[in-house]
Amino acid sequence: MTIHYAWSGSKVRLRPVRPEDWAEFHNNDLDSENARLCDEIHFPRSEEGTGIWAVHQSQNGPDGDNVFLAIATLDGTLVGSMNTMSCNARTGTFKYGISIFREHWRNGYATDAVKTVLRYYFEELRYQKVNASVYAFNDGSVALQEHLGFQLEGKLRNMIYTKGQHYDEYIYGLTKAEFEQLYG
């Protein structure tokens, strides 16, 4: 008998953060360029601090429909994380963010993880639209959104400050109907 697990795609499985994940997340925190692409470069955190963070994350469940998940390959290798945020059940809209550890870039893990989350939110939670914010200098994330079928819906000028200058923020969107047309 074949069992389908809603939080598994063809390459990855989404799961809660575990306390033992701290080392991989700590190593990822040392990649300042990846931090810049995903959010911002934060102040340094000790190994103990990352351990405390991982324990805290492992004890947190979803906050409404907002959730933070680890991304692991089907064989269990931790490759990144993703979260949903600004979930509004009344309007049926939400946002997501994703980070793949640099050594696992370009393996299709982000695409598979995003499709897994979108399928769940569209088919199980009745959401009808997802948005993603992308920094103008993040060519990889721009390519990911466009590869997934997201449409560029707007640009917020001079929203991000890094490397001594301001950058635009792009807003991408995908509706449930568009997702179903693309992915059945």
UniProtKB/TrEMBL annotation:
<keyword id="KW-0808">Transferase</keyword>
<feature type="domain" description="N-acetyltransferase">
    <location>
        <begin position="12"/>
        <end position="177"/>
    </location>
</feature>
<dbReference type="InterPro" id="IPR016181">
    <property type="entry name" value="Acyl_CoA_acyltransferase"/>
</dbReference>
<dbReference type="InterPro" id="IPR000182">
    <property type="entry name" value="GNAT_dom"/>
</dbReference>
<protein>
    <submittedName>
        <fullName>N-acetyltransferase</fullName>
    </submittedName>
</protein>
<dbReference type="GO" id="GO:0016747">
    <property type="term" value="F:acyltransferase activity, transferring groups other than amino-acyl groups"/>
</dbReference>
<dbReference type="Pfam" id="PF13302">
    <property type="entry name" value="Acetyltransf_3"/>
</dbReference>
